[in-house]
Model the fold of this input.
Amino acid sequence: MWQAIRSSWTLFIGMIFLMVSNGLLATLLTLRAGELGFSDTMIGLMQSAYPVGAFAGCVIAPRLVINVGHIRAFAALASLASIAALIHLVTSDIASWTLMRILAGFCYSGLYIVAESWLNGRATNENRASLLSIYFLIQTGGAALGQVFLNLSTPDGIFLFVLVSIFVSLSLIPILTSSSASPPFELPERISIRELFKLTPMGLTGSFLNGISQSALYISLALYGKGIGLAPGEIGGLIGVATLGGMVFQFPIGRLSDRIDRRLVITGVALLSVPISLFIFMLGSQPGNLLWVYAGVFLIGGTAFPIYSVCVAHMNDHLRPSQIVAASGTLTLVLYTGVIIGPSLSAIAIDQLGHTALFMFVAITQALTVTTALFRFWKGKSAPDERGTAMAVAQSATQMAAHLNPEAERPYADDKLYDSAEKQDLRQ
Done:
């Protein structure tokens, strides 16, 4: 792992700045929008515009990289992301903020595509797993670290927005000053949703539901914190605790899913989050309960965020090596569809039923995940005898990160053997 860090440390530093800026901006906008008088529903719809842009970025940004190259694409997207953050200082209407969230989503997903592609170019068969693990830690840890900066100023000032712009600019330095030649880039392939659903319905459905849960937590936790009267720094701490919970529990849950049927792991983990969510829902906003809220949110993050990685691993178990990268591209778009829905629905629930309704919404979504996993365990095929390893994948990762999965790099001869074995199984 240390060799992997030494070979790509400048790129990792740039990614840290990107994740800090993105994590800080997401929470900052929710708090600033509340002070401007936006309703919770309006805030949820505005924040849902980010994954819409990210969805478009996953489709369009790769072509931009092919046309102008990694460095120019990265510089252009970073400049636009910086502009999008600063425009929030000079406008105060929901339409312009929504458009800027679409632009930010497009730019950040494009920046991640460039960074992941660059990382792929430096990866070897020996360090792919280490690079993917480090990348996951940077994505989740950077987003959590971004919440800390909310303590430096108030959301109604200009300092935090300028800080976001500075972080985006700093992320440019490692890419622009790198002495390494930019790696070759190919357009990511995709498998149709219908075909992928036939191969792995649990992977597809579980990722969609998890996108709803993750985005609801990440965006609407700020609405919940604002509703119970927390200071901006405390709200940032709440979101940071949920993110850190996902980071801490990610690897143990992934290892467990390597040993037993992944559908049972998804069932158990999602089921654990239901009573925890209901417990916080019943706590309400009574004084003295803040410690319990932080502890509960940590556990909810720890039981909700890792599900996506287990779904990815479950999908890979049912694919030929040559299909993994293409299927990951489709799965990313399915995840983003859930991410688009989550903030809007959770914000509407908060607006209509009160701020604690967020945790009822999370409990319902996780219960649906449990139901789906149990149904697929009962009706679906048994787990393959030979399965891969669950690799940590953050929700913000794009389809390019799939190239870092060592299982996608198996020799073509092995893939042909896989085809032969599969045909033999069908004949039997």
